[in-house]
TrEMBL record:
<feature type="binding site">
    <location>
        <position position="36"/>
    </location>
    <ligand>
        <name>ATP</name>
    </ligand>
</feature>
<feature type="binding site">
    <location>
        <position position="169"/>
    </location>
    <ligand>
        <name>ATP</name>
    </ligand>
</feature>
<dbReference type="GO" id="GO:0005524">
    <property type="term" value="F:ATP binding"/>
</dbReference>
<dbReference type="Pfam" id="PF00183">
    <property type="entry name" value="HSP90"/>
</dbReference>
<keyword id="KW-0143">Chaperone</keyword>
<comment type="similarity">
    <text>Belongs to the heat shock protein 90 family.</text>
</comment>
<dbReference type="InterPro" id="IPR020575">
    <property type="entry name" value="Hsp90_N"/>
</dbReference>
<keyword id="KW-0547">Nucleotide-binding</keyword>
<dbReference type="InterPro" id="IPR020568">
    <property type="entry name" value="Ribosomal_Su5_D2-typ_SF"/>
</dbReference>
<dbReference type="InterPro" id="IPR036890">
    <property type="entry name" value="HATPase_C_sf"/>
</dbReference>
<feature type="binding site">
    <location>
        <position position="82"/>
    </location>
    <ligand>
        <name>ATP</name>
    </ligand>
</feature>
<keyword id="KW-0346">Stress response</keyword>
<feature type="binding site">
    <location>
        <begin position="97"/>
        <end position="98"/>
    </location>
    <ligand>
        <name>ATP</name>
    </ligand>
</feature>
<keyword id="KW-0067">ATP-binding</keyword>
<dbReference type="Pfam" id="PF13589">
    <property type="entry name" value="HATPase_c_3"/>
</dbReference>
<dbReference type="InterPro" id="IPR001404">
    <property type="entry name" value="Hsp90_fam"/>
</dbReference>
<protein>
    <recommendedName>
        <fullName>Chaperone protein HtpG</fullName>
    </recommendedName>
</protein>
Length: 627
């Protein structure tokens, strides 16, 4: 048997295009060829199960071997095998229409997956790294003869009688000079571990040394000996292929450690398993979230029939779920997947919605089942839930029933519970309920205490995403506004109809304003004399809620850059009812008035962490002098 011919691709430009990917995604050749070998093994098992193959199956196996001297990599399987006619059908006829348009479209492409996947060219990825590819194969069919196919990367091929004596296929790659990095045991093992760690058929790569029991020594102590065994690089039945009823918590935790060896244990997990209207399995873990978004992302691994595809899954899962860890496996997502496919595919959109619903249902279940435990985990999952509420409307609809607000006393409330708690005391004269919050309870303690004296409650909003969450709450909650507790003096945070009486006359009020404006003598500070309780601070420096919020969002890159460029402006509230103000006005000289006023302003700035440098030094010196 001998035959020569040309591969039916209607153009000689196909191989240069395939080879052009050799410097970016060239490692996928091994994923493609090993996946093909696994498919061949699984198919013979199915034929045997259906009674269409009566021969000896043997133990299913795919083997990858390296010969550094000959500069070859061989992928062998004991699967279906091929006849010479099947080689011609499946290997030679790379048939697709419009070859010239294809060449033109992909000549500048950068993504190997795009070309390999679009036209089913998995086998031809071999030519990304090899300048000669040989197939030795023997079909399972009764009476089949072994066949050999060889191609040097041109469009010419040769088929002759093969040398294989057992069912299956060997793909032998003669590695070219540009790809000699793959003639390394460690490099191949790294790629196999990346793409084939959970393939459903054992993958052998060389051997490894292990120990086994070897009787007892003279003292009766157990002995061991070292032996060489097959190095099987994969786990063929990972937990996401099993039913949740088969698994214990330890199984999920062990698998998590396998995926993320240096991570803390997760808080809990969700086992995904759906077969209609699409196929999807997987396990998603809720990690202990730190306040660094980027550290948490890209930890979900996407598989197709247990073959690793990518850990960039943002088109498959909603943005906020990128903070989860774990695996998703769907045969409905092709192995060679491109970004444009993910964005357009209807199954991907359904998967996205399904996962969102499953996550929301799991959180609701945990909340309903054991609220105390849920509240204990809120520090870790609150960031994630708030992110989901802000970014995904469907998740927001479900999450509003289990999202929690936490106050400075460490108490947790659902959104409805908190509204009921504060509505009577914290409704302003316009009928709006005012939620007060702190971003730094220690730094803003004096303001929190002032609010407490009025009976007001203060929420803690100190996560990186709370600025956006606050805006979201104002949009979603009817007649509700949120104000940072240090954004104004306490009487102006929640304006009521009743007003405190001024102890100062109009003349004294105007005089006090002039004294303090002169003492500050800096742009951006607006002085106002107000009537507060005599126990409140004599001077309070605040930034307007709206302006401060816009500036905070500008710092986070929230599209508010215009506000970030604006100069800072502060309100200086002088408590005209405080005895210190009367003392300043009664001071004998203008110099004494200025000194006391300056001291009171600096004290207010110091309490806000806004006094530094020479101003702080002057304050300390003045304090010593006044003592």
């Amino acid at each position: 048997m001998q035959e020569k011919g040309n591969i039916s691709i209607h153009t000689e430009n196909i191989f240069p295009i395939i080879k052009k990917f050799l410097y970016s995604d060239n490692e996928i050749f091994l994923r493609e060829l090993v996946s093909n070998a696994v498919d061949a093994v699984q198919k013979i098992k199915r034929l045997a199960a259906l009674g269409q193959y009566q021969g000896e199956l043997g133990s299913p196996l795919v083997e990858v071997s390296l010969d550094e001297e000959k500069k070859t990599i061989t992928i062998s399987d004991n699967g279906l095998g091929m006849t010479a006619d099947e080689i011609k059908k499946y290997i030679n006829q790379v048939a697709f229409s419009g070859a010239s348009e294809f060449v033109e479209k992909f000549k500048d492409a950068k993504d190997a997956n795009e070309i390999i996947g679009k036209f089913g060219l998995g086998f031809y990825s071999a030519f990304m790294v090899a300048d000669l590819v040989e197939i030795q194969t023997l079909s399972y069919q009764e009476g089949a003869e072994p066949a050999r196919w060889v191609c040097d990367g041109s469009t010419e091929f040769e088929i002759t009688e093969g040398a294989r004596s057992t069912r299956g296929t060997d793909i032998i790659l003669h590695i070219n000079k540009d790809a000699e990095e793959f003639l390394s045991k460690y490099k191949l093992e790294e790629i196999l571990d990346k793409y084939g760690k959970f393939l459903p058929v054992p993958i052998k790569f060389g051997t490894k040394t292990t120990t086994e029991p070897d009787g007892e020594d003279e003292e009766g102590k157990p002995k061991t000996r070292q032996i060489e065994v097959d190095n099987i690089i994969n786990t063929t039945n990972p937990i996401w292929t099993k039913a949740p009823t088969e698994l214990k918590d330890e199984d999920y935790l062990d698998f998590y450690k396998q995926l993320y060896p240096f991570s803390e244990d997760p808080l809990f997990w969700i086992h995904l398993n759906v077969d209609y209207p699409f196929n999807l399995t997987g396990v998603l873990y809720f990690p202990k979230l730190k306040n660094d978004f980027e550290m948490q992302r890209n930890k979900i691994k996407l598989f197709s029939r247990q073959v690793f595809i990518t850990d960039e899954v943002k088109d498959i899962v909603p943005e906020f779920l990128m903070l989860l860890h774990g695996v998703i496996d769907s045969p409905d997502i092709p192995l060679n997947v491109s970004r444009s496919f993910l964005q357009a595919d209807s199954n991907v959109k359904k998967i996205n919605s399904y996962i969102t619903k499953k996550v929301a249902d799991k959180l609701q279940e945990l909340f309903n089942k054991d609220r105390k435990s849920f509240e204990e985990k809120w520090t870790d999952i609150g960031l994630f839930v708030k992110y989901g509420i802000i970014s995904e409307e469907k998740f927001n609809d479900k999450a509003k029933d289990f999202a929690l607000l936490t106050n400075t006393a460490g108490e947790n409330f659902t959104l409805n519970e908190y509204h009921e708690k504060v509505k009577d005391l914290q409704t302003d004269k316009n009928g709006s309920v005012v939620y007060l919050y702190t971003t730094d309870a220690a730094k803003q303690d004096s303001f929190i205490q002032s609010a407490g004296k009025k009976g007001y409650d203060v929420l803690v909003m100190d996560s990186p995403i709370d600025n956006h969450f606050i805006n979201h709450l104002e949009q979603k909650l009817e007649k509700t506004v949120l104000k940072r507790v240090d954004s104004s003096v306490v009487d102006q945070l929640i304006e009521k109809d009743e007003q405190n009486e001024h102890v100062l006359t109009e003349e004294q009020t105007e005089k006090a304003k002039q004294v303090f404006e002169k003492a500050i003598s800096k742009p951006g500070y607006q002085v106002e004399v107000v009537a507060l309780h005599p126990d409140e601070m004599p001077v309070t420096v605040t930034m307007d809620e709206f302006m401060r919020r816009m500036k905070d969002m500008a710092k986070m890159g929230g599209g508010m850059g215009f506000y970030g460029q604006m100069p800072d402006n502060y309100k200086v509230a002088i408590n005209g009812n405080h005895k210190l103000i009367g003392r300043i006005l009664a001071a004998g000289s203008e110099e004494e008035q200025n000194k006391l006023a300056k001291q009171a302003v600096d004290l207010a700035l110091l309490s806000q962490g806004m006094l530094s440098g020479s101003d702080l030094t002057a304050f300390v010196s003045r304090s010593v002098e006044l003592i």
